[in-house]
């Protein structure tokens, strides 16, 4: 049973990462349609603004509560986030709420030491319910969109795989919030198998999206992205095998950690290159920062997994 303190802290930390991810998914979808599909554009814009509001409300009560690990991990924001938002707003004409990011950058770490958490707990419970309603709607929207794309009822510049990719992330967010609302003690250490399988696949797909969005003349970057795609495909396969205990999870964790450190560097350099107009591509700067934050999030999880005792990894 999750304590009140952990319920509050874990909920806020989850939203600081995922609410921003969801609002950016909505943005990427919004700017990927043709003018004909104004209904899809309007719906995506509404989701984007609703997640803006959710994230702003989360930030408003997170100061002095969220952990230093979260704030320092780079999964909530990075040094590139504001510039990436400003550049992407300039390119698209969409009014991205950079003020939210500026406020978030000032968040202070802390711990919830007060005995009476009832008011804050009630606020967090309500925020979780809002998040569940929002993400449920976004899941339905993405599911319908993917069906329409696959049946050639509409065109978007977003790959079908990307739509499926962001649909899986929305479902994970929903699952984690529901578990928090049920006061389940989410011990990520016990979930190493599932998390590594999930995030290694995400890293592989990021690499393939980057490969496909680079200008054909960017041979070196294309080759690097392609190699990361193959590497994380293999790590995904190994993580699945570890679930059946055919190979020890600690070996996969170490390999995943090393690979994610490297792809993080690649994504950071790529985001900076996009912002400095040194890379030829059709990659939105905010997409570069988005995938960087997801690598940072996965790295934080892997650091937790690597601290697990060997006896956990080698259990029968």
UniProtKB/TrEMBL annotation:
Pfam families: DUF2935. This is DUF2935 domain-containing protein. It comes from the Bacteria.
């Amino acid at each position: 049973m999750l304590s009140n303190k952990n319920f509050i802290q874990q909920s806020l930390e989850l939203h600081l990462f995922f609410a921003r991810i969801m609002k950016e998914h909505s943005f990427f979808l919004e700017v990927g349609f043709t003018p004909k599909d104004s209904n899809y554009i309007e719906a995506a814009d509404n989701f984007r603004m609703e997640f803006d509001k959710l994230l702003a409300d989360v930030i408003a009560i997170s100061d002095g509560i969220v952990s230093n690990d979260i704030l320092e991990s780079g999964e909530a924001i990075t040094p590139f986030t504001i510039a990436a938002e400003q550049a992407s707003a300039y390119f698209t004409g969409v009014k991205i709420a950079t003020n939210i990011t500026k406020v978030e950058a000032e968040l202070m770490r802390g711990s919830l030491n007060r005995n009476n958490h009832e008011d804050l707990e009630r606020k967090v419970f309500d925020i979780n319910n809002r998040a569940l309603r929002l993400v449920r709607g976004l899941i339905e929207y993405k599911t319908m969109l993917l069906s329409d794309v696959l049946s050639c009822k509409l065109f978007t510049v977003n790959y079908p795989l990307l739509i499926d990719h962001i649909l899986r992330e929305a479902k994970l967010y929903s699952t984690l919030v529901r578990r928090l609302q049920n006061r389940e003690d989410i011990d990520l250490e016990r979930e190493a198998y599932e998390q590594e399988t999930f995030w290694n696949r995400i890293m592989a797909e990021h690499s393939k999206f980057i490969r496909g969005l680079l200008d054909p003349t960017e041979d070196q970057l294309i080759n690097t992205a392609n190699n990361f795609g193959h590497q994380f495909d293999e790590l995904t396969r190994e993580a699945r095998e570890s679930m059946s205990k055919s190979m020890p999870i600690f070996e996969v964790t170490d390999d995943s950690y090393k690979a994610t450190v490297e792809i993080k560097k690649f994504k950071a350099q790529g985001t900076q290159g996009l912002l400095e107009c040194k890379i030829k591509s059709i990659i939105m700067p905010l997409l570069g920062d988005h995938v960087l934050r997801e690598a940072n999030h996965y790295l934080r999880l892997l650091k937790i997994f690597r601290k697990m005792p060997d006896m956990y990894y080698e259990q029968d």
